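Morning F.,

Quick status update on the modeling queue. The single chain you submitted on Monday has been processed. Sequence for confirmation:
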Amino acid sequence: MSASPLNLAQPEALLRALYDAAVQRAMPAHTLADFLPAPPKGRTLVLGAGKAGGAMAQAVDRLWPQDKPMSGLVVTRYDHVPPGGQALPGRIEIVEAAHPVPDAAGLKAAERMLELTQGLTEDDLVLCLISGGGSALLTLPAVGLTLADKQAINRGLLESGANIHEMNCVRKHLSRIKGGRLAAACAPAQVVTLTISDVPGDDPSVIASGPTVPDSTTCADALAILDRYGIAIPDTIRALLKSADLETPKPTAPLWSRCRVEMIATPQQSLQAAADLAEQAGLRAYILSDEMEGESREVGRVQAALARAAARGLGPFVKPCVLLSGGETTVRVLPPKSGAAKGRGGRAGEFCMGLVLGLQAQAGVWGLAADTDGIDGVEANAGARVAPDTLARARQQGRVLTDHLDRNDAVGFFEPLGDLVVTGPTFTNVNDFRAVLIL
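Structure tokens below.
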């Protein structure tokens, strides 16, 4: 047999090839050129935030005419600057900050960005490079809110099971730069936002909490979300939200006539790239959805049910085939049982544990779930893989799957099996990638 990753006799290599194809489709170097605006009469200022920020800045620097002046500042996650990324000679500075819980470096970057917008004119262009992760990386708490407050609220949202729309609604209203406020600071300059979508539905107002697009959510919405998930906030901030003093720029504001958004990469495009590769291998590829949400483990169990039916020749999916999906699921972090250590893992690993639980060692089914940014939650792995013998190998090691699920401990379950997917930072981000292979 050939050692090609498109060989059906090597399902794990095939699944990894599908993931790699999805990631490559979303790389800024491949997508950004078609969306760059013409140089302006005045100066060009580049501002940006997100896990793809370093790669996007590199692409802009390479493509922008060398005889046209350009300067700017982009913030990305620690260790997410591509090789050579800091060597942008005097044009775009790249700094690093923490994700998913913000830190002082992100605060300083946001303050500097607002300072850079001072003195812009109608002849100037602001090129904003926005990608997933920008919400945490571009942090500038509302007046009356400390960085420690913002960190606690952000951590509470991450562990609550709130979806990305809910989390970013809150983030917008507790910020001095998100929810359209960065665009307002750039007026009267022209603002062109180039964005990579990491959210279900590709809504630019949700990506990185929409710093350069109008916001239709309200202070009342944000307060209701905080109360729904029992997340504590200072009394002063609660009062400001109740009075709508922290309201964001709305779609009717005149400033939006000078702003536009270009979507340079989306989850659907990446799933389609994976589907095209699968079909080259002789597989039927079914894209279930690019905007799946819900509890990660439950999404895993649902997809396991679909795969079991397909493996038995039932249902609408004809094998050999692969079921592809994307979106942003959630993990509600449960308090560990008495005496148990808190687990480690993220959405992709949690999905895989649900998949294993639902498959119950079904023959002929493999799976892979990984975040396209290369980081599953806060761990060093991108996700995990599943094989027909996963459950048997775990039992041989004395591992009880439900115990790991109870602790949200995907790393503890898959690492001893050698089944973590480790890629390192990919320098892009179109969110979750999931593939279930039925042979």
